[in-house]
Amino acid sequence: MRDFTIIVDTTSDLSKEVLEDFNLKLIKAHFVDEDGKDKVSFTDWSECTYYNGQADFFKHLKANPDGFKTSPNSVYEVTECFKEEIKKDKDILAITISSTMSGTFNMFNSAKKDLEGTHNCEIKIVDSMRFGGGIGLLAIKASILRSEGKTLDEVYDYLEANKNTFHQMGWLDDLSFVAKKGRITHSKAFFGQLIGIKPLGESDQNGLTTVLGKAKGEKGAYPAMLSYIEKTIENPSEQNILICHSVREKQALEYKRLIEEKFNPKKVYIIECGPSCGINIGPGLMSCYYQGKPISKDLVEEKALMESILTK
Which domains occur in the chain, in start order? Predict the structure, then answer.
């Protein structure tokens, strides 16, 4: 059986620890900062030399949300990344951000096409239909299947058949940022924060986050989120769970404690939202990613479930 490399881009937000634990390769995209300069993105804030950590970056981003932009990898960059693995005589499994959100999937496919006829290695590309930790969790699952002896084709087929079982549950509580981005009115943002509303979101079939319901404060949000996870997760004790946050470390640590106490998973990793996702999300994200039951069309079942949880 031929060995294969699993490649993910920076929209996965995977930390150095996760990348090393699961032997994953990161390909870095780009972003343009408030000075109009193109910079290589990252998932480890220790690599950032132009902002003093995550909190400083999001402070600048919140003050100037339209001054930052993201851009995917170029076809040349992806081609060169693939060539490195081909030289090692390895096949390739690449997992990208949802094609509904970015052109990354198309860039990867163009690179694959450019390399056709130049090598004997196989390249397969998965449109994750997810973003952030959702992509990362697909990569972790692929790594586990690889370690169990599954072939490239078997892992690819599994991800394609099961990517709609990868869930997200958490909040985005800084509504002023999404208001500046035009995704919610400023009045709704102000009054939502004034009364401490926590919009609880889940991924739909395209990877877009939809608010299922709104809890009052952290006190109301944590039990609602745990109840939702309990009713949608499968085999929690066999899972690795990701919690991603943008300047919400304290809340992420509490969420981790509660998830470990209730579900006893293999491991819970806390990862920090980097520029590739953070520029479009803003500060205030605190969400976990796990595998469970298939997500229904238009989140009809999930909305009903959350409504029943919040009205108890």
Answer: 4-32+71-162 (3.40.50.10170), 165-310 (3.30.1180.10)
> Do 271 and 50 meet the contact criterion of CB atoms below 8 Å apart?
no
Of 204, 272, 232, which Cα lies nearest the Cα of 54?
Answer: 272
Q: What is the pTM of this model?
A: 0.94
- Residue 80 neighbours by CB distance under 10 Å: 13
Q: Angle, nearest 10°, between helix axes 217-232 and 300-310?
A: 130
Q: What is the pLDDT of residues 84-114, one digit of tens each?
A: 999 999 999 999 999 988 889 999 999 999 9
Strands 91-96 and 69-71: unpaired
Give pLDDT tens digits for 164-202: 999 999 998 876 676 665 544 444 445 455 557 888 999
Contacting residues for 70 by C-beta, under 8 A, at least 6 apart = 29, 30, 31, 32, 41, 102, 275, 276, 279, 280
User: What does 254-295 look like in DSSP terms, one character per residue?
Assistant: HHHHHHHHHH--SEEEEEE--HHHHHHH-TTEEEEEEEBSPP
HSE on the CB side for 39, CA within 13 Å?
A: 20
Distance from C-alpha of 105 to C-alpha of 115, rounded to nearest angstrom: 16
CB 273 within 8 A of CB 15: no
Chain position carrying tokens 């998932």:
43
Instruction: Indicate the angle between helix axes 104-114 and 75-87, nearest 10 degrees.
Output: 50
Cα–Cα dist 250/15, whole Å: 18
Eight-state DSSP code of residue 97: S
Q: Helices in the chain by DSSP H: which ranges?
A: 16-21, 53-63, 75-87, 104-114, 133-147, 152-162, 175-180, 186-194, 217-232, 249-263, 275-281, 300-310
Backbone φ, ψ for residue 244 (5° rounding) = -110, 140
